[in-house]
Design goal:
Structural class: mainly alpha
Strand content: under 5%
Helix content: over 70%
Distance between the termini: 59 Å
Number of domains: 1
Largest sheet: none
């Protein structure tokens, strides 16, 4: 486990500027495509909640947290499994079609860690969506307090 964390710490994320991240996520296999679908699902649920198409806040929070947690779990498990089987999977995961080939171990680590990064970003977006719901769909007493302070 310590080797895996050291591998992640050595990632040079600036290398993403030179690569096509969509293709790298696609080359990660079915879990990479699932992460993309979960990211779209979180965005759709958030937009539906903004326009009150999902009427209950507790449903929105539960859906957002479950989608974000699932994305985080898929991303971390996928990255760990790719790290474990890196020599055998390297030709499938790192392809020249997505951009220049990684030269250093840090650049290779950045390409391998992409599912984890996407999972963390989707989880963070779902937490921000829940925070938004907490602030703008607050209790009626907060809304009354807010209305009473207006001149």
């Amino acid at each position: 486990m310590k080797e895996f964390l050291d591998f992640l710490r050595s990632s040079q994320f600036r290398f993403y500027q030179e690569r096509d991240l969509g293709l790298d996520l696609y080359h990660a296999g079915i879990p990479g495509v699932a992460l993309f679908i979960l990211a779209v699902a979180v965005a759709v649920v958030f937009l539906l909640s903004i326009f009150h198409a999902i009427p209950k806040r507790k449903h929105v929070v539960a859906i957002l947290l479950s989608l974000g947690s699932l994305a985080l779990a898929i991303g971390s498990v996928t990255t760990f499994l790719h790290f474990q089987h890196l020599p055998a999977l390297e030709s499938r995961l790192i392809r020249a079609s997505a951009g220049p080939a990684p030269v250093t171990d840090g650049q290779r680590a950045a390409v391998i860690a992409l599912p984890l990064l996407v999972g963390v970003l989707v989880f963070g977006a779902s937490l921000l969506g829940c925070l938004y719901m907490g602030i703008f769909w607050g209790t009626s007493s907060l809304k009354k307090l807010w209305r009473s302070k207006k001149p």
